From TrEMBL:
One of its GO terms (biological process) is L-serine biosynthetic process. This is phosphoserine phosphatase. Residues 18-89 form the ACT domain. The active site is at D190, D192. The gene is serB.
Length: 405
C-alpha cells in the first residue's frame, strides 16, 4: 500500500482499522464491503486489491470508529452472507513509509521456477532490503515479475542479483524506482542480430560466394577481438563486384527478431521515439526505418558505382565510438536527456553506446557485452524489453485489440 504525503490527515498516533477480505472473486464484493463501511462515516486512508486465479484479497485501512466492535460484528455477518473471510484489526497510524533506496527489479524466466524466485527474494533480503510489492508483467512466452523494493542501494542490488541470475538461469534487471522511470524515452537499437536475425554483411557475402571468411571475421569483431573499423573494411572488400541488386534481395530475405514489431509499435503508441544505429549499411537500415516507422537511423554507406559494389564504404565509419556519438546526437535532436535513453545491442561495438545510455540492455549478447551492460535479456523475444519499462503483456494485448494493426 502507498504512503501518505506530508501534511495529510493520518497522524502517527491516530487510531486506525485494517479490514481484510479474502475469498472467491466475483462482481460486487468490493462494493459490498465499502458500502458497509460507508454507513459509519469512516475515512479511507489506503486500499489495495489483488486477484490471483480467481482468489480476491482486499485490504482497506480506515480511520477507526469509536465502536469498532459493533462494526466487526457487522462485517462478520457480511462475510457469512458473502461466503468470504473478513478480518478486522485495530491499530495506530498509517502504513510505514517505504524506506529510501527504491528499486524496480524485473525477473524474467522461461520458465520461472519457485526455486528461482525464492533465490531472488533471498538475495534481496540479504541486502537488508524489503519487497514492498510483486506484480506479474507477462505470463508468456516468458514469465516476468516485477518487485518494488526499498531499503537498498540499487547498485548493490544489481551486483548481488546479477550473480544470482546467472546461478538460476534468469534475466534480472534492477532500475531506480523513481518518477523518471515512467517518463517517455528514446530507444536506440543495434540492427544486426538485435532488431533483425543474422548479419546483413554475411548475407551479402553469401551472394558474393565469400560467406565463410566474412562470417569468421564478423564473429571475431563482435567478440571484441578485432578493431571494428578495420574488420569492416576487410569484409566490405570481399563484396567488390557484387551487383547492387543483391541489396534488394537481402532486404527481402531479412527476418525481424521475434517481438520487434510489437516493441516498436507499442512504444510508438506511448510517445517514445525510436532510433537504429548500425555498423551495417544505410541501404538496408533506411528501408527498415521507413517500414517500421523508426524516427532516426544511422549506418555505414556502401559505395556503388554503375550498379556494382566497389568494396568500399563512403564517409566516416560507424564503429564502437560512432554508435555512442550517434546516441548522443539522437538524444539531442529528440530533446531527450541521456538519462532517459535506452540502448539495446549484442556486440562489442555496442559497448560504448550501452555505457552512454541511461539503461544499457545486452540482448542475447556476447559474454563481454553481458558483463558490461546494466542488464541483459537472454530470451529471443525483443518485446521482453517492454517489461523492463514497466509495460505488461496484458496492456500490450489490450492496446492491439483496441487498435488493430
Amino acid at each position: 500500500m502507498t504512503e501518505l504525503s506530508e501534511g495529510e490527515s493520518a497522524s502517527a498516533d491516530r487510531p486506525t482499522l485494517l479490514v481484510t477480505l479474502t475469498g472467491s472473486d466475483r462482481p460486487g464484493l468490493t462494493s459490498a464491503v465499502l458500502s458497509t463501511l460507508a454507513t459509519r462515516g469512516l475515512d479511507v486512508i489506503d486500499a489495495e486489491q489483488v486477484v490471483l486465479r480467481g482468489r480476491l484479497v482486499l485490504g482497506v485501512l480506515l480511520s477507526a470508529p469509536r465502536d469498532h466492535k459493533s462494526l466487526k460484528e457487522e462485517l462478520k455477518a457480511l462475510a457469512a452472507a458473502l461466503d468470504v473471510e473478513i478480518s478486522v484489526k485495530r491499530g495506530v497510524g498509517d502504513n510505514e513509509p517505504r524506506r529510501k533506496g527504491r528499486s524496480q527489479v524485473t525477473v524474467i524466466g522461461r520458465p520461472l521456477s519457485a526455486a528461482g524466485l525464492a533465490a531472488v527474494a533471498g538475495r534481496i533480503a540479504d541486502t537488508g532490503a524489503n519487497i514492498d510489492r510483486i506484480s506479474r508483467m507477462a505470463r508468456y512466452p516468458v514469465t516476468a515479475m516485477e518487485f518494488a523494493v526499498s531499503g537498498a542501494d540499487p547498485e548493490v542490488l544489481r551486483t548481488v542479483l546479477a550473480l544470482e541470475g546467472v546461478r538460476q538461469g534468469l534475466d534480472i534487471a534492477v532500475q531506480d524506482g523513481g518518477l523518471y522511470r515512467r517518463a517517455k524515452r528514446l530507444i536506440v537499437m543495434d540492427v544486426d542480430s538485435t532488431l533483425i536475425q543474422g548479419e546483413v554483411i554475411e548475407m551479402l557475402a553469401h551472394h558474393a560466394g565469400r560467406l565463410e571468411e566474412v562470417a569468421a571475421v564478423t564473429e571475431q569483431a563482435m567478440r571484441g577481438e578485432l578493431d571494428f573499423a578495420d574488420s569492416l573494411r576487410n569484409r566490405v572488400a570481399a563484396l567488390e563486384g557484387l551487383p547492387a541488386t543483391a541489396l534488394d534481395e537481402v532486404y527481402a530475405a531479412i527476418e525481424l527478431a521475434p517481438g520487434a514489431r510489437t516493441l516498436v509499435r507499442t512504444l510508438k503508441r506511448l510517445g517514445y521515439q525510436f532510433a537504429i544505429v548500425s555498423g551495417g549499411f544505410s541501404q538496408i537500415t533506411d528501408k527498415l526505418a521507413a517500414e517500421l516507422g523508426i524516427d532516426y537511423a544511422q549506418a555505414n554507406e556502401l559505395e556503388i558505382v554503375d550498379g556494382v559494389l566497389t568494396g568500399q564504404v563512403v564517409g566516416e565509419i560507424v564503429d564502437r565510438p560512432g554508435k555512442a556519438t550517434a546516441l548522443r546526437q539522437f538524444a539531442q535532436r529528440s530533446g531527450t536527456p541521456l538519462s532517459q535513453t535506452v540502448a539495446i545491442g549484442d556486440g562489442a561495438n555496442d559497448l560504448d553506446m550501452l555505457a552512454a545510455a541511461g539503461l544499457g540492455v545486452a540482448f542475447n549478447a556476447k559474454p563481454v557485452v553481458r558483463a558490461a551492460a546494466d542488464t541483459h535479456v537472454s530470451v529471443p523475444y525483443l518485446d521482453t524489453i517492454l517489461y523492463l519499462l514497466g509495460i505488461t503483456r496484458e496492456e500490450v494485448e489490450a492496446a492491439d485489440a483496441d487498435t488493430p494493426t
